[in-house]
Amino acid sequence: MKSIPQQTQVLIVGGGPAGSTAAGLLAREGFEVTLLELSNFPRYHIGESLLPTILPIMDLLGVREKLENFGFQRKHGAYLEWGTETWALDFGELSGSYTHAFQVKRDEFDQMLLNHAAEQGVNVFENTEVRSLEFDGERPVRAHWQKKANNGSAAEQGVISFEYLIDASGRNGVMSNHYLKNRKYHNVFQNIGVWGYWKNVDRLATGREGDIAVGSIPNGWLWGIPLSDGTMSIGAVMHKNVFKDNKSKDLMTLYTEAIETSPLLKKITKDGEMISGVLSETDYSYAADKFCGPGFFMIGDAACFLDPLLSSGVHLATMSAMLAAASITSYTRGDVSMDEAQSFFENSYRQAYLRFLVFLSAFYDVGRTKESYFWEAQRVTQQDVPSDFIKLAFLNLVTGVKDLADVQSDDTHHFVLEEMTKRIDDNLRFRQDKKKLANLDGEKLVSARENAQFFDSIEGIFSLNESDAVGGLYVSLFPKFGLTRVNH
């Protein structure tokens, strides 16, 4: 059994999708990578619905074939009953882009990625906690670790030094919570998720096997995620005040009442049987006020977390992992300075997060009813994100650069949310009549493609080409992986 080395080029804390992806990409570029994971995989994790946008990263990582052949439930879209609207969303139907994703059991998916990282040469050590870090000025340089003790034996301990640290420790947030103290919780999206697992449900209630079902209710919304073993993950997301106002009710009662309130999920579970207890998790959204610093990068939930409505968790985790790996690779090759690499990472990741944040707020607004505090509480404000951050994230996406550039700071949030809401409305209008969509031509076809391009910029990996460069840099995948300068 191999031992944890005393030194490594890159130390990664955490073996979830963010950590495993960063580790695998760096190992493929020839780095010596050591990954320390607190848990013993496989381990349970919520967040089972993936987006098609992870597929290019799975290609780059060399794990796409394993993913396709693993046996996960294939996902071609979603079915939503949202407010007064009902529609089916098919991936790629407006733009011809990636047309499928997967619904996964995260214990299996995360294990697959961690195993793949080890196959790329990463030194993976599970059941190992990073107890503390040592710094040279502001730069972390050593980690004190401890393995979980077995059978009453003394816990093994040690120290590992490193050149670079990638913090993929999830909500624990080794750097953000314990050293930088820079995690800021938003006033918006202070929600709580409760869920459980069912069998014998109606998996075709959405009209197609594999679709995620999403149904809004006055105090929140519910998901139904069909899994490959025939079970379904069914959960409800409600504002924290719902739980405060119903202290006399236990979680199971609130959960079953939420399902009864949704026509869609009530139909799905009509003949079903719940086969688990009810689980819960606080879904408060947050972001650190900086994502990187001297010698370190924070990726995935270690840097920021977002309400799960848009299934953005694994997308942001793997995207930030790719950005960090590209930044370290290019700096080490001498292609960019460390200031350039970290500025690119910081701005790219923050823009990706903020675009999802505003999309989420605008999408909630589409389903808003005046009678429900829940919907009102989901609006992004200046208190959640400064106007200059929102302006930077959306400057090139709204109707014109000049439009947003000329907006006064106090009006920025309103302007961007209004623009986003218009595009959501257009997107729904295009998608709701599939026969009409199939026969679009002329200006309507151009309009549909422009709408799809806008949301590709929100949900996609927007730093992969010259037109989406950030600070004059973008990520090249071929012929070599790393940061490339815009060719003026």
Q: In DSSP terms, counting alpha (H) and pi (I) runs of 4 or more, how many helices?
A: 16
Q: Major beta sheet, specifics?
A: 8 strands, mixed
How far the N terminus sits from the C terminus, by CA atoms, comes to: 52 Å
Q: Structural class of the helices, strands and pairings?
A: alpha+beta
Shape category: globular
> What portion of residues belong to β-strands?
15-25%
- What Rg, in angstroms, do the CA atoms define? 22 Å
| Total beta-strand segments | 23
Helix content: 25-40%
Average pLDDT figure? 94
Query: Could you list the spans in which at least 5 consecutive residues all have pLDDT below 50?
Result: none
Q: If you had to describe this structure to a student in words, what would you say it looks like?
A:
The protein has 488 residues and is an alpha+beta fold. It contains 16 helices and 23 strands. Strands 1, 2, 7, 8, 9, 10, 19 and 20 form an eight-stranded mixed sheet that branches. Strands 4, 5, 12, 13, 14, 15, 16 and 17 form an eight-stranded mixed sheet that branches. A hairpin with a 5-residue loop joins β22 and β23. α10 packs across α14. The mean pLDDT is 94.
